[in-house]
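agent> Task received from the user: take the single chain below, predict its 3D structure, and emit structure tokens. No templates, no multimer pairing.
agent> Plan: (1) validate residues, (2) run structure prediction, (3) serialize to tokens, (4) report one or two observations.
agent> Step 1 OK, no nonstandard residues flagged.
tool_call: predict_structure(input=
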Amino acid sequence: MTREELINYLNTEQLINISNALKNMFERTKAFYFQVTTTLTVNDDGRYEVSTPDNFPVFTPKGQGFLEDGGDYYKGELKLRNLEEEDSLEMAKDLIIACFENNKNKS
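)
tool_result: status=success, residues=107
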């Protein structure tokens, strides 16, 4: 997929899944959520993973283990926000934007 196709795919077909993964992360880390960095990594074929640097919870809906294959991926990071006060869909959208702000980053 092209960069634009990936952005569209994530914002339309996968936004709820990414949002739910962030909510799940928040619920599991509620006492120290402000210390957690979320990472979205996306492959050219649409596979993606929502994780933290220490892989606290990991959400990979389309094929486990693609990161181990090596290669270049789109990757973005954001500090986990207080999702009791903010809509997780908004954070998911911001995480997608962060993922594609830069060119491909080597993982």
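agent> Step 4: summary for the user.
The first helix runs from residue 3 to 12.
agent> Done.
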